[in-house]
Amino acid sequence: MSPENTPDQPRGGRAPVTTKAQLGHVGLQLFFERGFERTTVDDIAAAAGIGRRTFFRYFASKNDLPWGDFDGLVEAMRVRLASVPQDVPPLAALREAVLAFNRFPDVADEDHRRRMTLLLGTPELIAHSTLRFADWRRAVADFVADRLGEDPGGLRPQTIAWTYLAASIAAYERWLVDGTSLQDLLAEAMDLIEGAFRP
């Protein structure tokens, strides 16, 4: 194998990226510029100054890169929900957890908008989202089931989890269209569904 084809050799003389967040930023910029389908893992690795093998230490696949640290956010949501006092109604706890999950600094707003346009508008990524959203729904269903003393796979916890996910996606799609405050849209979407589940 020639030196230029060595999997882990930094390329182009640039300083290699050293964090998952940095690699994610490089990859997203290429997706925005070239399109998701036309950007390869090798393109991202070259732009990041790393080898292909190093890319896969950070992300399992190209499809995973646009999600950033989604797993970490889901785990943080689980921790938040687990810490909610028992006297706080479950729906109030879910509202705060969903809003916190989707709260980003104003300076990141445009990048987040472009990321979500990519995730919700790219067929290959929409298919991949099934796996990611399942983890999110599981966190919600586990919390609801624990509070209600039910099986997480039961109809009520699953219905609530699916409904909160649907409300969140609907808010995101509206946000991408009209640019209204994402937090306001999420709160409004949850207002629309809370009445159906309130005891």
From TrEMBL:
* One Pfam family cited in the UniProt record for this chain: TetR_C_14
Record bears the keyword Electron transport: no
Please give the name of this protein: Mycofactocin system transcriptional regulator
Q: Which Gene3D superfamilies match?
A: Homeodomain-like, Tetracycline Repressor, domain 2
- Keyword list, A-Z: DNA-binding, Transcription, Transcription regulation
Q: Identify the InterPro entries for this entry.
A: DNA-bd_HTH_TetR-type_CS, Homeodomain-like_sf, HTH-type_TetR-like_transc_reg, HTH_TetR, MftR_C, Tet_transcr_reg_TetR-rel_C_sf, Tscrpt_reg_TetR-type
List membrane-spanning regions: none
Q: Which PANTHER family match?
A: HTH-TYPE TRANSCRIPTIONAL REGULATOR RUTR, MYCOFACTOCIN BIOSYNTHESIS TRANSCRIPTIONAL REGULATOR MFTR-RELATED
- Looking at the record, the residues that make up the HTH tetR-type domain are 17-77
Q: Say which species the protein is native to.
A: Amnibacterium endophyticum
Instruction: List residues annotated as DNA-binding.
Output: 40-59
